[in-house]
Amino acid sequence: MLAPREGVPPVTADARALDEVVAAFAAGSGPVAVDAERASGYRYGQRAYLVQLRRAGAGTALIDPVACPDLSALGAVLAPEEWVLHAATQDLPCLRDIGMVPARLFDTELAARLAGFARVGLGVMVETVLGFSLEKGHSAVDWSSRPLPDPWLRYAALDVELLVDLRDALEADLERQGKLEWALEEFAAIAAAPPPPPRKDPWRRTSGVHKVRRRRQLAVVRELWEARDQIAQRRDLSPGKVLADAAIVAAAQAMPADTRALAALHGFGPRMGRRQLQLWQAAVDRARAMEEAELPQPAQAAAGPPPPRAWAEKDPEAAARLSAARAAVTSHAEALRLPQENLLAPDVVRRLCWEPPADQSPAAIGEALRTLGAREWQIAQTVPLLTKALAD
Known about the structure:
Elements: E1 11-12, H1 15-27, E2 29-38, E3 48-56, E4 59-63, H2 72-78, E5 82-85, H3 88-97, E6 104-107, H4 108-115, H5 122-130, H6 150-161, H7 163-177, H8 180-192, H9 215-235, H10 239-242, H11 245-254, H12 259-263, H13 274-289, H14 311-314, H15 316-336, H16 340-343, H17 346-354, H18 362-371, H19 376-391
Parallel strand pairs: 1-4, 2-5, 5-6
Antiparallel strand pairs: 2-3, 3-4
Helix pairs in contact: 1-2, 4-7, 5-7, 9-11, 9-13, 15-17, 15-19, 18-19
Pfam family, one: DNA_pol_A_exo1
Domain HRDC: 214-294
Organism: Streptomyces boetiae
């Protein structure tokens, strides 16, 4: 399929055109295919730079959320309907930011996983299930560019062209396998999930920070990361385009005393101007001058059980429980043609095995799984085998 069946619609980029889209989609029928394009790697944050929709009776719409930043009227019209997205958790945050929040959804990627498909990318699924090959050559382009080139718009429109058809085929497949209720439960949980809280100490996610051991060096990472983040936000650039993570780690390890020493490090080469070098060196100097009490503490271990490799030494009985439980869950997942992590999250299995309920009855294990966030269908499928595994 080289182009949408009805052609590529014009981009909606003003209030009048948006009103027409809202009216058309309100008058349409059936599920609404929804997709969004971001500019990851180019711009700061994960905002949407194009929103694509398709619905029977309304056709396809391409909306520019830069020119039309408030889509809450469209979101309100579509809120009662089922939204069809592929990998919904990737797009829901940026859609929420512009006023579009579904009450019901169907995630074709997750549906494909539950149906037993090994490869679940949209292009592969459309080709495997529907027999159409879609062009996928523009997924990583800079969608913040304006005007958007015609080939990009054609690609974006094709992303929603067959999404409802794929949804219908996967729904039928899941129903044949007796898994449709499982999928609907998963979709409801995604739609009901609240926005994640802000990440604590986001600078600790700098790639390679595990190589930095000393607290003062960690302070350099923090100061450089925060300085970079401020610049990236102000200039609306991806932080990696301002300063690479590898450069931050190199500066933390070397603790350069001046800009000349800084310029000799990887990532601070001759192309970097003197003012930039001075800015980064100032961040290093701030860390060098900090009092001991101001330095960040080493990263604390995440709450919960220790890494499984340490279980045999720390608690051999827990290690035995984990081995039996993992084997049971993996075997059952294979029988159901499911990824093991979709049958039951590995972290849930670990936490259950590290601190099992004192009463290891099926009811108690089921309640423990529920407390750990397992869905009801997962509990029904895994309680019998986990009860036996823990007992053995």
